[in-house]
Specification:
about 30% helix, alpha/beta, four-stranded antiparallel sheet, Rossmann fold, binds adenosine-5'-triphosphate, globular, 10 strands, 8 helices, binds magnesium ion
């Protein structure tokens, strides 16, 4: 990837997110600090209601912190306007969702061209880039298929190709295997591992410990509090290890 590897891709410091409902203030994220370097494959794992989507929305620049600092490739996200957030998202993040979010009337190729439309590329260049992304996920032979002519696993691979088409520094996946049977889910995860080995930074959000195991590093979120535990690999950037209890939680799955 093109990025400057001395700056962390993600750097969050004491990020808090609160919602005000009627007269009550609910704090959903409590002073979350997180650093993700280029080239990592991180899983954020936690039970329902723990704050995963809230955190994903902030990482993905779909929402901003109430307090604290969030830098994406060194650029402060907190306090940016909606227009600026849209621009940051388009440049820096490829999204993958549980439900694929493909447009049903468009072919696989046309779906993958969509995020390139705002890039000022020629039609020919767009097609070439979309094609290349589909080939990376092994769907070269299926480019003319519409979503309903593809299996769930293939649809998710189109969605991954669409996320890759802009060559974003960050691939951000929210329960990417949630709609797939376990075997197909594992195949999709295997593909994401391959992309990571080729240099793609991935942040994957899941409630499923078995899915989280496939990442090279996991952080756990509970009641809006993030704790970090290195599991394998060895590039030590541990921020919150204490007694290994979180490690066991992950390994038990
Ligand atoms: N807009 C909002 N206003 C008020 N409270 C909110 C809002 N969005 C989320 N919450 C609360 O924040 C908490 C965390 O929600 P979040 O959606 O981040 O959880 P989650 O970990 O993604 O859960 P799930 O696994 O079920 O998707 C929940 O208690 C939820 O009710
Ligand atoms: Mg959620």
């Amino acid at each position: 990837m093109s990025a400057n590897h001395t700056t962390p891709l993600i750097e969050m410091a004491d990020v808090t997110k609160s919602y005000r409902m009627a007269r009550e203030k609910t704090t959903v994220l409590h002073q979350v600090s997180l650093r993700v370097n280029h080239g990592e494959f991180l899983a954020i794992v936690g039970p329902s209601g723990s704050g995963k989507s809230t955190l994903m929305n902030i990482i993905g620049c779909l929402d901003t912190p109430s307090e604290g600092s969030y830098k994406l490739e060194g650029l402060e996200v907190t306090g940016q306007s909606d227009n600026k957030l849209t621009e940051i998202r388009n440049k820096k993040i490829g999204f993958i969702f549980q439900g694929y979010h493909l447009l049903p009337r468009l072919t696989a190729l046309e779906n993958c061209e969509l995020p390139l439309i705002y890039r000022g590329l020629s039609g020919k260049e767009r097609k070439a880039r979309a094609m290349e992304a589909l080939e990376r996920v092994g769907l070269g032979p299926r480019i003319a298929h519409r979503p309903n002519e593809l299996s769930g696993g293939q649809q998710q691979r189109v969605a991954i190709a669409r996320a890759l088409a802009t060559n974003p520094p960050l691939l951000l996946a929210d329960e990417p295997t949630g709609a797939l049977d376990s075997r197909t889910g594992m195949e999709v995860l295997g593909m994401m591992e391959g992309l990571n080995r080729a240099g793609q930074t991935i942040v994957l959000i899941t409630h499923d410990m078995e899915v989280a195991q496939r990442a090279s590093r996991s952080v756990i979120i509970r009641d809006g509090v993030l704790s970090e535990q290195e599991r394998r690999g060895g590039d030590e950037t541990d921020a919150g290890a204490q007694d290994g209890s979180h490690e066991r939680v992950v390994q038990q799955a």
